[in-house]
Protein: Thiamine diphosphokinase
Organism: Desulfomicrobium orale DSM 12838
Amino acid sequence: MITHWVLAANGEPASSPRIRTVIADADRVISVDGGSRMLAALGVTPHLAVGDMDSTPPELLARYRDAGVELFLHPTRKDATDLELALELALDGEAGLITILGATGGRLDHTLGNLLLLEHCLKRNTAARIMDDTQTVYLTDGLLNLQGRPGDTLSIIPVSGDANGVTLTGLEYPLQDAHLPFGSSQGLSNVFSEEKACVRLRSGRLLVFHLHADNAAL
């Protein structure tokens, strides 16, 4: 049975019905420092809290202690972000699926760094995604099947050099065994033509952005 871990980080808070369902269905919820505020706004008490807690309100930290939340405390000066430490904890806990919330918005360097943390999951063959109220982001080096709705937007971006043998189906602009150079914008703003879309590549890595049309205005 796949164990689903949700990590709530200190980026743009999310509260859409899709996000609430994801949290409700999780087997383990981790508060990543200031992500505690997002969870508190949703009425969620995590199973674990990770970080240096410099962005966690003291009253929330006290509440966690009283509730018996397992705390993994780290110094402020360290060689990894709180989210990276929480992600490694989930991977070591043999998570089968990892959903990361609060990893987008705000500082662009943080957002990009968070997206590239998906490489940790890819190397360990663990399914992972970053979600906010309007989109879901994946990193793939092989096959990715997506469930959506006609009108949803799909963008793919090569991130480790060129992507080769790229095939897209279920989209208005399909590709067959295509070459996408690193730095190309060719893969941006495709559109779901069916409820299922498939991304496949032979070599390289792609960041895949699935923008949900039903939440575009949230």
